[in-house]
Amino acid sequence: MEKFTTLTGLAAPLMWANIDTDMIIPIQRLVGSGRTGLGQYGFERFRGKPDFPLDKPEFQGAPILLAAENFGCGSSREGAVWTLLDMGVRCVIAPSFGDIFHNNCFQNGVLPVRLPIEVIQRMAEAIQDSPGNARITVDLEKQQVVTPWGEAVPFAVDARKREALLSGLDEIQQTLARGAEIAAWQARDRAARGWAWDPVSR
Length: 202
Known about the structure:
Elements: E1 6-9, E2 11-14, H1 21-24, E3 64-67, H2 79-86, E4 91-94, H3 99-107, E5 111-114, H4 117-129, E6 136-139, E7 144-146, E8 152-154, H5 159-167, H6 171-177, H7 179-192, H8 194-197
Parallel strand pairs: 2-3, 3-4, 4-5
Antiparallel strand pairs: 1-6, 6-7, 7-8
């Protein structure tokens, strides 16, 4: 998993509430597919419609996505995060997220940031006033978002998830990284409770 430390770039404003995982990627696009190549289908039901923000040339490949409340609600499909990653998105900033989507983000190297809706709306307006020029910086080490007008806005994140993302480790990799500790515990337990480890005695 790719590390996330600091990201500076354009943000695409998609200021809709309750964007669910089926809106991000329909289930039929996940049948028989892998983790890559899904970006071309991201938000496909809205593509080509008038004023759909992500169709605008200045927002193509934007690494940051701005959204309104309850982003990533609906089903638990991890493919929604894979789709965003394949579109180039490494950070989603919204007031709130679907719980499972929020967790899936950390498992795949995407940072979900919760900020007040007023701040996000103001950033979206600044971006729309100067499309292609307004930049946002997301600093996971300092836990702050630097707005297009230079204000540093703090955000909270679970300490364990923060460290894992800074190190580029998903839950399996975090477990493997503690292999020596696990082996030491197994040795102690085997010595103390040999019967639990001997398949013949079970």
